[in-house]
Amino acid sequence: MRGWLQQLFCAAVGCALGAVAIASEVSANTPAEAVTPPQYQLQPGDIVTISVWKERDLVAEVMVRPDGGLSFPLAGEVPAANHSVGEVRDLIAERLKRFIPDPVVTVAVKAIGGNHVYVIGKVFRPGEYPFSRPLDVMQALSLAGGATPYAQVNDIVILRRDNQNGQRVLRFRYGDIERGKDLEQNVVLNSGDTVVVP
Hints:
Elements: H1 2-29, E1 47-52, E2 55-63, E3 69-72, E4 76-79, H2 85-96, E5 105-111, E6 116-121, E7 127-130, H3 137-143, E8 156-161, E9 167-172, H4 174-178, E10 194-197
Parallel strand pairs: 6-10
Antiparallel strand pairs: 1-2, 1-5, 3-4, 6-7, 8-9, 8-10
């Protein structure tokens, strides 16, 4: 009986040691720096809550305006559009240092209302589509129900505004993507982009 228990114990310990060895091998082969997803960029229409620790009068719920800015007491006008929450927080904290020593600022997104793309032309459901995670051209076309039978899918264009209010045209050939070629055409859309399907 004693020999049987001893064999069982050794088998259990051996399994545990094997698991530890496998775990250490996996951790050794795991890259030191994991790939971090891109941070969310605030857009006009988003609502954020801003607060300063121990400052009851410095709590506000604000919307990012169409011009891309927001207002906060003592910090004044703060550029927010196309900036991450962390960047906005750091900028507000830097401006508050003139009035409050070592301010602890918190910025949290309460509602995402600013990310919209538009799909127009020969699709089954043209319109405005909100999104809260990265969205590429193929996904936008899917949301719009796909192209109609008479659409010229190799002449699709994406209209994109730049920071100077100019427009760029990005070409998209559905047939290339369908064959697995020139996949870089399937760009991640920016808020405000318009996909035109002739």
